[in-house]
Amino acid sequence: MAGDTLTSSEYIKHHLTNLTYGQHPDGSWGLAHSAEEAKEMGFWAFHVDTLGFSIALGALFIFLFSKAAKSATSGVPGGLQNFVEWILEFVEDNVKSSFTGKNSFIGAMGMTVFVWILLMNAMDLVPVDFIPYLASLMGVHFLKVVPTTDPNATMGMALSVFALTLYYSFKIKRPGGFLAELAFHPFPKYMFPVNLLLEGVSLIAKPISLGLRLFGNMYAGEMIFILIALLPWYVQWTLSLPWAIFHILIVTLQAFIFMVLTIVYMDMAYTVDEH
After folding, report:
1. Which residues are identified as catalytic?
2. CB burial class (10 A; 0-12, 13-18, 19+) of residue 149?
3. pTM over 0.85
4. In the chain, what are the domain boundaries?
5. Which of 109, 134, 183, 211 is the most exposed place for a label (fewest CB within 10 A)?
């Protein structure tokens, strides 16, 4: 599609630009028609494609799992029920092995994180030109279909996990216990400035690493698909299929890592240091 009329660099830039809605320099609001316009919109711009696909995939997740729950049977289960039960058991096993506290919310959160991110990552397996081409027929200039290749999405999820971690840390340990954990470990109490610096950096690094790890891996995978799409068609088929098969592992692994780290961080929030 776009590769027929754009240079290689323009094609790559086109596929890595979000459909952005925001305020233009003249004060009007609307969609950006170039990467430069999107940049000029600043912080309060919205990535319409990231939000749209994220919400749509979240709705798909809710629909499929609610359908499986409503049609669940104690007899011979259908394919959808088998799949949902397998995911529930998989998440439950990870929660039991990583979370030592008592909170039924953790299992639901782990399942939501895993399935939602898995669905968003799986959009990377759709041919890079297919959905953007359909969108171009309707006059849409840019469209990124993989929400997790947008750092706004991955950091948003990571910061949400971080906020929950802080909430339960204050709830379980109380403000005094949480601050003492930051100020009085790992060195003796009189070195609390050093402790506070080290523990503060470690605390802040958690959501940053959680969000950027997911973004970096998915962005790199999407970039490889885009580069393959620039090659002659007979080379594309030779390279894209093996990479897509391998990328299924990356798609699943990144969702799994995000879920496990979420559970681990929540367990740390519930762990009260005896000292």
Report:
1. 209, 213, 217
2. buried
3. yes
4. 2-270
5. 134
